[in-house]
Each structure stands twice: as C-alpha cells, then as structure tokens.
Amino acid sequence: MNRHDDSAPGLSRRRFLGAASSLAVAAGVIGTGGAVAAESLAKPRAAARAMSGVEPFYGVHQGGIVTAQQTHSLFAAFDLETTARADVIALLKRWTVAANRLSRGETARPLTAPKDAAPLDGGSAEGLKAARLTVTFGFGPGLFISDGKDRYGLASRRPEALVDLPKFNGDQLVAEKCGGDLSIQVCADDPQVAFHALRELLALADGVALIKWMQSGFTSPPADGGTARNLMGFKDGTNNPSTRSSETMNKVVWVGDEGGWMKEGSYLVVRRIRISLEHWDKTELGFQEEVVGRYKANGAPLGKAHESDPLDLEAVDKEGNPVIPDNAHARLSAAAENDGAQILRRAYSYNDGVGFYAERWPPWRQGMMLDAGLFFVAYQRDPRSGFIKINKKLATQDIMNQFTTHVGSAIFACPPGASEGSFIGAGLFEGLDS
Q1: Is 377 left (phi over 0), alpha (psi -120 to 50) or beta?
Q2: Within its chain, how far is the Cα of 221 from the centroid?
C-alpha cells in the first residue's frame, strides 16, 4: 500500500503533486446534490415508479450498459466446468430465458408446487417489483483459450479487441478477484431483487459453471437527479460521454462492422480499487481538490464555477503553475490528454467491511482498515484504444495513486442484445457443429 507521511509540514502540495505515483482510479464523475423540502414530497412517488419500472431484456444492445444507472449492482465472474460446447450453449439459452423473465419482475422459471421437490425459484423476490432490473452478460478470454487449450473450438473466433489486460504499474492484483470465463452483472433499484436474480442464474449454471468471484456495489444519486458522489466525497461521472447521443455511443461504446459477431456489443473492463479512506479523510481539502482536479463542493473543474464547465487545461495561476495540476486525475483522464480516447464509466462504490493490512497510514501503525472503494466498470468499443491507453498514463502519473490500490481486474466481451427466440451470444456459435 502506498503511504503518505504528513510529518513534514514544510512540504508543499505543489511539490507533493509532482511526485510520481503507482496506481490509478479511473474515477470519472456522474450531477449535483442538494434536495429541498418540496422535493421530498415527491420522493415516495418517484421511488414507487422506479421500483415498478421494467427495462426490456431483448433488443439490439444488452441492457445495463447505457441504461440509466440503478442504485445496486452485483457482478459475478464464472469459471466453466464443462468440456462440451453444447453445455455452454444450453446454459446461455437458459440464462437468456431467465433474464428476460426476471427483468419483467417474474420468477426465473415458471413455478410448480409439488411438496416433494425443491421449488424452481427461491422466492426471495416474491411480491417485489422489477425495480428496473437489467442483466448484462460477458465472455472472458477463457471461453476461447484456457491454459493454452481451445476447449470449445472457439479460439479462431476470439475478437482481436478481447486482449489480456497488461499488468499496470503498481497493480497489486489478487488472483481470487480477477478474470473469469463468463460474467454477469445484475443491476436494480432494489438490492433484494438484484440478489434474487443472481441466485437464480447461479442455480441454472449448476454442473456447467462455478462462480469464481463476486462484487456488490451501490450508488446513491441525489434527489435532484444530479451526479452521485463516490466514497472520496467527489462527484463521479461528470465527464462521461453522453448516453443520449447515438453518434457518441457508436463512436465510444458500440462495436461496429469490424467486430463480426460482436457488432453492437461492447467490451467491458472491471477493476476493484481499494481506497485508503483513513488516509484520504485526513488529507486537507485543498490537496484533495488538486488531486482530483475539481472542487469538492460543486464538482466544477479547478478555476471554473460549474460542474458542466469544460476543463481548461491551459490555464495557469499567477505564479505560472497549471490551475489543474499536471498529475491531477481529471487532467490525465481527459480525452484531450489521451488523443481523444474515451470510455463509458458505470462505476459503483463498494464496502466489504474491514480487513487486516500489515501496512497502513500512518506507516507506523498496523491493524484493521476499511475494505472499501470503487468497483470500476467501463464499457468501450475497443479496450486497446480505450481503457488500456488511458490507464497506462494514469498508472504512472496520477497522484490519486497515493490513495488507491488496484486489487481486482477482468475483461469481457459483452455481445449484442438477444432477439426473442434466440439467445445471448448466439452469433458466436453460428455455423459451428452443435
């Protein structure tokens, strides 16, 4: 864990900002806070509408990518047990049918009620609304090649863009939180609805795939519909490309004609980023803002007045120093600093209790620390020109690395949406012997 010694009061923030760092949080930023009393009267009605909302499962694109972000997320990566491609196809068909039913607020399978058999659905979502549930599926590199073996005859169909992520400077990855042959992300505005859905999909994988790791997450958008804040207290998602612009999404998120069976799909990178909140919370406000490159109160770029104001990367102060420091997160992650590269961030905060760490801040103390941070989720048309390009710079230059540790990582190809009567990822298997 990187450490910050605050015992040298003469050390200036500017000099400290000039130090090279090891890791990066691609913490982007998602509005503004502050509810008024009159708005509180509408909150129960708005909450009821959200809980009863239904997001369609079938479509050109998978749900849960450009869908308005729900408040709760469960992400699960699976390792395949089976040696037969037919089993993989059968599982994807079962998952497709179940995901469509679950998104409508139904049970994963039609229920029968014999007393001498286990129920076909656990029933934990009985009486609950759909809560805008989405289920997003992904295919990891292991589906195509695992330990050098082409298990399912799919190696020749592995997309070029589905690369193995490089080891970034400062990564401290834990194998148990990395990789996977298949992935499922379930998002909903009700945590019990989300967990019920994942449980049922896991049950349908019995004998074919085993869950490898799972991560829960949450976000709490303000009552006024503005940008949510991450656990560092800053607004998260401000510079995201607009999901309302089909032209922008086609450029940044959706795979084009070059993708073959992946056309209209997207590539997903997830990173589990532990934040040293104890360290961060003892850091002075002015330094926090220079680390991020934005004001904490309203999310505006340094030197500007409003959250939506563009970053002025050329502005200097009266001493000739950049108003937004050279190694501030907002600068280094900006498209202008990365040859126009952009990604769609859909991150969630996480809190997994506490864990023991031999090193902690201050450096002479040891013991339990919060195991909490950011579950970074990013969709893009090509990770080579998206996340990988951006994060190589962040991993070596971002001063935010003083507060963060990347401990989990995975990449998945999320195929296009399924049409009724077909199944998720059907294009991958077309023309192959069953």
Answers
A1: beta
A2: 16
Could you tell me which of 357, 389, 346, 74 has the C-alpha nearest to residue 230?
Answer: 346
Tokens 């690395």 map to which residue? 401
Q: Are strands 344-345 and 404-414 parallel, antiparallel or unpaired?
A: unpaired
Q: Within a 10 A sphere around the Cβ of 181, how many other Cβ atoms?
A: 24
Structure tokens at 168: 């970034």
Q: Is 345 annotated as a binding residue?
A: yes
Enter the tokens of residue 134: 């989405």
Strands 367-380 and 72-80: unpaired
Q: What stretches of 30-84 show up as alpha helix (H) in DSSP?
A: 37-40, 43-52
Gap between the Cα atoms of 394 and 396, Å rounded = 5
User: What is the spatial distance between Cα 113 and Cα 100, in angstroms, rounded to a whole number?
Assistant: 22
CA distance 90 to 196: 21
The reply, when asked if residue 329 is annotated as ligand binding, is yes
Q: What is the pLDDT along the chain (434 residues), one digit of tens a residue?
A: 443 443 333 334 443 444 433 333 333 333 333 333 334 444 444 555 567 699 999 999 999 999 999 999 999 999 999 999 999 999 999 999 999 999 999 999 888 767 788 888 889 999 999 999 999 999 999 999 999 999 999 999 999 999 999 999 999 999 999 999 999 999 999 999 999 999 999 999 999 999 999 999 999 988 887 899 999 999 998 999 999 999 999 999 999 999 999 999 999 999 999 999 999 999 999 999 999 999 999 999 999 999 999 999 999 999 999 999 999 999 999 999 999 999 999 999 999 998 866 554 555 556 778 999 999 999 999 999 999 999 999 999 999 999 999 999 999 999 999 999 999 999 999 989 75
Q: Is 294 annotated as a binding residue?
A: yes
Residue among 405, 403, 423, 407 at smallest CA distance from 415: 423
Contact 246, 388 (CB under 8 A): no
The rounded distance, in Å, linking the Cα atoms of 407 and 173 is 4
| pTM for this prediction | 0.87
**Of 279, 264, 306, nearest to 416 (Cα)?**
264
What is the DSSP secondary-structure string of 201-248?
HHHHTTTTEEEEEEEEEE----TTS---B-TTSSB--TTPPPTT-HHH
The helix-helix angle for 191-204 and 85-103 (nearest 10°) equals 150
Q: How far is CA 167 from CA 33, 195, 391, 392, 393, in A?
A: 37, 32, 11, 9, 13
Give the span between the Cα atoms of 58 and 104, in whole angstroms: 11
Give me the half-sphere count of Cα atoms (radius 13 Å) on the Cβ side of residue 411.
Answer: 20
